[in-house]
Amino acid sequence: MQEELVSFWGLFLSAFISSTIAPGGSEAVLAYMVSAGGFKTEGLVLIATIGNTLGALTTWLLGILAARKFSMENVLSEKKKKALNIVKRWGVWALFFSWLPIVGDGLCFAGGWLRLPFLISCIAIFIGKALRYIFVAFVFI
Hints:
Elements: H1 2-18, H2 26-36, H3 41-69, H4 72-75, H5 78-90, H6 103-113, H7 118-140
Helix pairs in contact: 1-2, 1-3, 2-3, 2-7, 3-6, 3-7, 5-6
């Protein structure tokens, strides 16, 4: 039981960190845990999705805070300006692609910067990330 709990927390933290400050290997952790067996795949997918979504929402909140303090020209890198333009064009639906490597963090940051509606943003992020983790789990079952 204790070992299971540690494994779940490890997956959650891996997914959270992968979606915030550091590139991570949450997919690899999930793949390992699914292929090792002994855990319900649905539970693993849910834990990874929640952790990754909360990490993305942290980035989204950083976008809100940055928008309050700084002007776009002074703060945003070219990568974040591109993400901002994508989110301006596609709105909350762009956040569905927050699971993508490299650009996903920028999309979440831009969503916060633009103050997209929180609940709809959360749902779009969650669905995109869930589909990615479902795919990874399916491949390694």
